[in-house]
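Cont'd.
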Amino acid sequence: MMQNKDIKRLSLYLLFAPFALWIILLVILPHIGMVVLSLKEKIAPRVYEYSFANYLEFLHEPIYWNTLLRTGSMSLLVTALALLIGFPIAYYIAKIAGPRSRGGLFLLCLIPLWVSDLIRAFGWILLLRETGVISNFLLWTGLIGEPVEFLYNDVAVIVGLTYTVILFMIVPLVSTLDGMDNAMIEAGYNLGGSGFTVLRRIIIPYAMPGIVAGCIVTFMLTAGSYLTPILLGGKNSSWFTEQIYNQFITRFNWEGGAAFGMLLLFFTSLVIWLGLKLSGQTLANTVAKS
Amino acid sequence: MTDNPSYDLECLDVSKNFGSIRAVKDVSFDIPSGSFFSILGPSGCGKTTLMRMIAGFEDPSGGDIRIKGKSVLGTPPNKRNVKMVFQHLALFPMMNVYENIAYGLRCSGVGSAEIKRKVHDVLERIALPDVAEREIHQLSGGQKQRIAIARCMVLDPDVLLLDEPLGALDLKLREAMKIELKLLQHQFNTTFVYITHDQSEALVMSDNVAIMNQGEFEQIGTPQELYHHPSTAFVASFVGDSNRWSGVVRSSDNTGGKVETEQGLPMSFSSAGEKTIQEGARVNIFVRPEFIRTVRAGGDDLQDAAGENRMDGIVDSLLFNGANSRVLVRTGSGELVESDVTLTGENDLKPGEDVHLVWPSKQSMCFADQGKA
């Protein structure tokens, strides 16, 4: 009897071990290291002192917190765009498409994931650059007189980012909408609701957990992305991850970089907390569910 | 007839095709105001399609649907004054009871003071005055049922459609809800159209029942008519229990005749469906278990048991179910016949006893074989 219990416990530990190791070694330890590092101030070569100097520097230099706010607001914009474009797609896949075409459509949404981020960004570069497909097409139609550079501006960054993250909006939305009984939509109409009323009072409230889950994931991915803003926005993209990279690699200021990293984490967490409060949702019934 | 306002709902030759499948075939009926009408049929007979056409979720391929004398073809579902209680109720889980009931009123732009009055009024009428602030998941199955009905009734519909709403409830609650639904219908005095495959629900609650089979109405009538005077073999076998024999008519006139069953037994019948059946025709005979009397062989009871039809057999088993107990009798030709018996606990029939089965010819419902079987 006792032995049986021990075996059960042992197997539980063994099953749990990879997950625990992953969390501890790759998430918790590095973050503790980052926190410690970010609280160090270099006062002389190889001499460090604990202080908040790195964080204070962030506050004193407007370029830093402006970049963070810019990254945050553009990420929110990308999230909103992904929701606006993704919701009708998800609704179509979950509710309108037949059972046979549903799988195919879902697969089509997944295909871009088979290609690396880098290749996808280069795809956009091919389209948008001065000698790219769009510019050449517009030249050919005569709408523009000389080649136009579509790359290296905010619009290019937002378009590229929306394209990259929209899938992570569609997947949770499809799974929530899929669980919705069609009779509920029909009841909404039957009781006298117009299409807009049904959408506003029944479909969206029902899909709220999926919407919030999708928004959290897309916001996090966008705010933390590096490759797409750099490649499509060039030097002007001013993405906060670029600042972190600069601190670590260009300026070799690991303490500053660690502080920036923690600030980005706090900032995005704060935005998500606000979002959850405003929508009346909890992490447990959104991200944890889908 | 078409502009007669005493009909809340009329269907004229309504049909619906899905590709080459004809789900509903030229169904016509009309329902007088304030009555309880059931559509009873096996699953897949097209009754749900018919209901969805009345509610406006499907367009009929042909025919006309009129509500209060006005055709509603081309009217979208949210503009029809026909409300529907869905099979799984489809209450909105993200709204509380009050908001669920107020939803329809808000859609039609009723003022908030008026909404409050109406919601509380309807909650009183369904005898749940205190649940307004509850969430849907806090309600019991029977309460959800009543809220789903209240949500429709608060809008004062011309017709209320109910799509097997009792299916998900357990047996005890289902029995209670049957009576309650009937009372609610009386109280609101609204036309109820009830869809079900459960004959006891339809028989208990309805003023009129339509039996639907393979997209067509077989018979419309009161529950008693359907039970005692079925017009087709399908109705006879679908409504209520019955013993069934196949045979060939040996002699016949316009009141009845004699049949020889496949087992070679003679059986006399009264013509059902007011049709004279030709001699030599293949027929099916249905006899309800409650009209067959089982008497002990050699007993004195035989003289009391009136009836032209007699069979001998041996008690195979007793199916005890209180007042609805049955006895299964194996006849000389080997088939099992069901008959109602009263089991008192004393001197009851026992398996293995020799018995006679006796029933009057007017209880043998005879239908000419359609040649389908």
